[in-house]
Queue: 2 jobs
Job 1
Amino acid sequence: MTTRANAPGYLPGFGNHFSTEAVEGALPEGRNSPQRHRLGLYAEQLSGTAFTAPRSENRRSWLYRLRPSAQHPAYQPFAQGKVRSGPFVDAPPSPNRMRWDPLPMPSEPTDWVEGLVTYGGNGDPDAAGGIGIHLYAANRSMIDRVFYCADGELLIVPQAGQQVFVTEMGRLDARPGEIVVIPRGVRFRVECEGEIRGYVCENYGAIFRIPDLGPIGANGLANPRDFETPTAWFEDLDRPTECVQKFGGRLWTTTFAHSPLDVVGWHGNLAPYRYDTAKFNTMGTVSFDHPDPSIFTVLTSPSETAGTANCDFVIFPPRWMVAEDTFRPPWFHRNVMSEFMGLVFGEYDAKEGGFAPGGASLHNCMSGHGPDQASYDKAVKADLKPVKIENTLAFMFESRMPIRTTEWAQTSPTMQLDYDDVWTGFEKGRIG
Ligand SMILES: [Fe+2]
C-alpha cells in the first residue's frame, strides 16, 4: 500500500493546476482535445463547477483514458441498504440531543459500499445545499466494484484501520488522523486489510475550501502546502466491473466490461486530495476565555449567506490550554448551527466518558448542551497551569440547517437512551 502524491499544493478552494501522467505522452501538449490522441486515449472533461463559474471558483480536470466513460449499459436500482439522502423524511425531525456508541464492525464480509449507514443530514442534493452524514464499517476490499457519488463530494474521515482510496485520478492511502476528499463524480474503490471504520460528510453544496484567515494573517490553521493530490495511476483490466453510484438519493448499479479506473493521465484543478490533521496549525487563546470552535475550521463549504456555512469541517486536535481565570472546556451553549460530532481517537475534553472513538453525537439547532457534570466539576476546580491535551482527535460537521436523523439512527441499539442524564444534578446558582 503506497501513496504517490503530486507536490503538495493549494487545492482546496482556489484551484492549483496539476498535470500528471502514468505513461509518457498521455497528456497532449498545447491542447485539451486533439483531433487524434497520439496514444489513442479518449479525452474527457470532468466539470466540478458550471462551465461559467468565475475563474476563482471554476474547477475542472481533463482525463485521458483507455475507454470513454460513456461505454456502459443502463443503470438499474441497487440495494439501498442503510443509505438515505436528502430530503431526509423517513423519520420525524427530533430536537433531542443524541449520542451513539461506536458503529459495530460487521460480522459478515462487508465492503465499503455495503457498510455505509446514514445517520442523518439536511437539505437536498437537487437543491444543491445541505449534507448527508454517513458512517461506514467494513472488513473487506471492494472487489471488481467501484463507487461514485453524483449527489455531492465526499469528505471521508477514517477512524479505524488503514484504507486505500483507489480513484480514477490516482491512489490515496489514509489512516486515522488523515482525511480524504473525493470530488463529486470521481469513481473509486476502497481497499483494506482487515476492519476499517470512518465517517463521511456528503456535501451537496459548494465545494469545500480552506477558510479565509482574516486577522490571523497569511499563515495558520490548515496550510495550503499540506494538501496532497494523487499522481495518475490506472489499471488495464478487461473483466466485468460493477459501478455503483448515488444519484438522486438512490443507489444505482451497472457493469462495465472493464475497469473504469483507466485514466492514464490528467490535468486540471479538480482532484481528490488528502490532508493529515497532524499538520493543522492550531490557534487558541493566550490570555483568557474559550474561543469559538470556528478557530479550528479545516475546510468550509460556504452558503450564499456570508459567514454561514453549508458545512464546516472542524477538528479538536492536540493543543495547549493556557487560558487564565477561564472555564477551559466549551461552556454551555445553544447554537443556530447544528453540530454533528465524531471521535477518531482519544477523549474529548467536554465529555470524559460515553463519547467513544467511532461513536457520534448530535446537538441540533438551539439545543442546549455543554460539559457533563464530571467535566464541569473538574474544570471549575482545575489548577490553571498550562496543560497539553494530547492523543485526541474529535471533529465536527457543523451545518447552517438542522440535521434530521434517519429512522435507523433514531432506533439503533447504539443510541444512548440516557444521554440527557449527563446534564442532570447541577446545583443551582447561589444568589442569596
Ligand atoms: Fe457545541
Job 2
Amino acid sequence: MALKRVFLLRSVAPRVAALSTKPQAQEQPPASPEAIRGCGAAKAVRPPVPDVDFTNTQEAYRSRRSWELVRNLLVLRLCASPVLLAHHEQLFQVARKLLGQRMFERLMKMTFYGHFVAGEDQESIRPLIRHNKAFGVGFILDYGVEEDLSPEEAERKEMESCTSEAERDGSGANKREKQYQVHPAFGDRRDGVISARTYFYANEAKCDNYMENLLQCIEASGGASDGGFSAIKLTALGRPQFLLQFSDVLTRWRRFFHQMAAEQGQAGRAAVDTKLEVAVLQDSIAKMGIASRAEIEGWFTPETLGVSGTVDLLDWNSLIDSRTRLSRHLVVPNVQTGQLEPLLSRFTEEEEQQMKRMLQRMDVLAKKAKEAGVRLMIDAEQSYFQPAISRLTLEMQRRFNVDKPFIFNTFQCYLKDAYDNVTLDMELARREGWCFGAKLVRGAYMAQERDRAVEIGYEDPINPTYEATNAMYHRANRGTRGWPGAKLR
Ligand SMILES: Cc1cc2nc3c(=O)[nH]c(=O)nc-3n(C[C@H](O)[C@H](O)[C@H](O)COP(=O)(O)OP(=O)(O)OC[C@H]3O[C@@H](n4cnc5c(N)ncnc54)[C@H](O)[C@@H]3O)c2cc1C
C-alpha cells in the first residue's frame, strides 16, 4: 500500500452561497469589532474580494501564466485519452526507468502533479494560495491520498462494510429498499468517477487515521490564508452501512409524506409548498393501521406544529428526529412489498458504538474547523448515501452555524430532488435561525448512478438531460438567492 500526503486545491467559483437566514434585526453592522455577532456582521470586517466573472475567460484565467495554461491543456488532453488512461501504470514505469527516479519526479511535478496538487504541507501551498488570492480566486483544500486497492479488495471491503450483522445472520432486520442495498457490481465506488478521493471502510482505527489527516488539512487551510475552505467526505469517517440504512429510513419517511400529499390532492408541488391538513392526515394514518388514533394525536401537538393545522415536510421530518423516540416504534409501508415494516433497524452494541464514533469524528472536525477559522465543506457523494450525509450535515449546521456559516452542505443539481432539498434546508435554517451555507454543483457520479439504477432496478435519480440538470442548477441558484433574509457572499 502506497500512501502519500498531498493537498489538492479546488478553486472556488462564485456558486458558493453563505446565506444568512437570521432575522434582519441581527444583521446590522456592529458598532465595534468586539460586538461582532451574527452572519451579516462578519461581512463588515472582511476586506472586499473582487468578484471574478467566470463567463469572461480572459478574466477567469488571469491568475494563470501562459505556460501554465499550456500545461493545463496538455494535462487535461492526456487525461481524456482512454488509451493513455488504460496503460498509465506501464507508461509511468517505462518513464521512470528511462529518466531515473529524480528526473521522473521533476517531470511529474511539472505536469500532472503540478496541475492537480497544491503542495505537500502548509508551507508549500502558501505561495499558490497567495497568488490566487491576489486575483480574487479563493480555495478549497482537499486531502488527497493515494491508496493502492485492487477492484476486488475494494468490492470485498464495500460488501462487508455495507451489510449489518442482522442482515448477515438473517435474524429479521427490516429489508432495505433496493437503492439502499449494497451490490457487488458497484462495490468499487471508484468506477467511472472523477473525484478527489474514494474512501473504503477497513476498521475504526483506519477511520481515526483519516480523521487525523483531515485535521491536518484543516490546520493547513487555516495556516495558509484567512477565509479558506476544507473539503471532507463523510464516507471517510465511519462504516458506510449507517449511511445506507439512515438514507433508506429518511427516504421512506419522505416518500410516505408525499404519498399522503397525493391523497390530499397535492402531488407535484414543490416540497416546501406542500402542506397537509392534520385532521385528514390523522384519519389516513389511522385507517392504514400504522398507529392508534390516540398515538397519532400525540404526534401532532401545538408544541410540535404550532396552530397552523397543517403539517409540512419539515414538521414531518422533525418527528423522526433523534430527539424523539417515536421513530423507534414506527412502521411505514414498503413501496416494493406493500407491507408495513419497522422504520428503524436494530443495531448490535458494536454497531451502535461504531455509529457514535462516526458522529464523534464529525464533531471533532467541525470543532477544529471553527477553532482554525476554516469553513468546512461536506462533499456530496453517491445518491444512496446522500440523504444521510445531508441530514448529518444539517445537524452540524444547526450546532456550528450559529453566528456565521462554518459548515457548508453540497447540493448536486443533477438529482431530480435537488431544488426541494436546498429550499427545505434553507427554510429550516430560517425557521430555526441558524446560518445556511451551501455549495451547488452539477454532480460527479452520473454514469455510475445511472448504471446502478438500471442494473438493480429502481428509478434513475438523475435528471434526464444535461439541459434539465442546468435548469435545476439555475433554479436552485435563483432559489437560494431569492430566499427571505438570504445574503450571498
Ligand atoms: C470545487 C468543486 C467541488 C465539487 N464538489 C462536488 C461534490 O461534492 N459532489 C459532486 O458530486 N460533485 C462535485 N463536484 C463536481 C461537479 O459537480 C461536476 O461534476 C464537475 O465539476 C464536472 O462539471 P464540468 O463543469 O466540468 O462539466 P459540465 O459538462 O458542465 O457538467 C457535467 C455534469 O453535468 C451533468 N450532466 C451532464 N450530462 C447530463 C445528462 N445527460 N443528464 C443529466 N445530467 C448531466 C453531470 O452532473 C455531469 O457530471 C465539484 C466540482 C468542483 C469544481
